[in-house]
Amino acid sequence: MVADEGAVDLELDRAHSARMYDYFLGGTTNFPADREGAGRAMAAFPAAMVAARANRQFMHRSVRHLTRLGMRQFLDVGTGIPTSPNLHEIAQETAPGARVVYTDNDPIVLAHARALLHSSPEGRTAYAQGDARDPQAVLKTPELHDTLDLGEPVALSLIALLHFIPGDRTAHDIVEHFKEALPSGSTLTISHVTPDFDPETIARVIQSYVASGTPTQARTRAEFTRFFDGWELLDPGVTVTHRWRPDAAHDIYQVTDAEAACYAAVARKP
To answer: Positive or negative, the Cα torsion across 91, 48, 193, 208?
Structure first.
């Protein structure tokens, strides 16, 4: 299931969004081209590192909250580089029996996926190679079906993913497909870059990603909120990443709305 690093083309000479994100988080799975790309992004958006870390803290808080609400199955689509602590590490702190499936279409992630498979003895983690743009294929992967029971509630995460899928119809259609496939009681967690607080700066940073070969699209609050149509938003609803149920015991960065530059929300299927 997990490829050898020599078996895939990691394109180390090109900046890659997953490795840039790893760099922003203080990880070690990044290379000179990625650090150069991250430098260009930070030149356009000096708070890029702050925004990435605020987003990561949101992921941690949302997972802790969902495990406390009783969620025990997690599907993380668009996993990215496994910069610790990962989703399963957070979930299994509270619920050692939690089961987690990670999916990504990137050979870079596949090459490092072993880091995602160190589950607690009581729980289970798995990695499935799959493209978020083909949710039907993702939902059919044997690794997913061997790990999760799709007849029971699943916590679906699309963290910092959908802004890399331009075109409103495409992104919203993908989310709707996943939503329809999950049973009542399932949850949907999304974070997404927005131009609402500093449109000129966000336009510049998006252009820096596009120039590096990564299509990117920021979305407004209204466009973001549409992803949750038909589901019940959990308190506090749609807000900026650092304002979603802040936790003084775990949050270590002070952030403004313009620095965070991402909306976040969690919703439950009726």
So the answer is: negative
144: CATH: 3.40.50.150
Residue 4 lies in a domain: no
Mean pLDDT within 236-251: 90
Per DSSP, the three-state class of 249 is coil
pTM of the model: 0.91
How many helices (H) and strands (E) would you count in the chain?
11, 8
Q: Identify the domain containing residue 132 by its residue range.
A: 11-268
Structural domain contains residue 2: no
Work out how many domains the chain is built from and give that number. Answer: 1
Does residue 6 belong to any structural domain of this protein?
no
Residues 143/32, Cβ–Cβ less than 8 Å: no
Query: Are 102 and 127 in contact, with CB atoms under 8 Å apart?
Result: yes
* Distance in angstroms (rounded) separating the CA atoms of residues 47 and 41: 9
Average pLDDT over residues 83-108: 92
In a domain, 5, yes or no: no
Is residue 263 helix, strand or coil?
strand
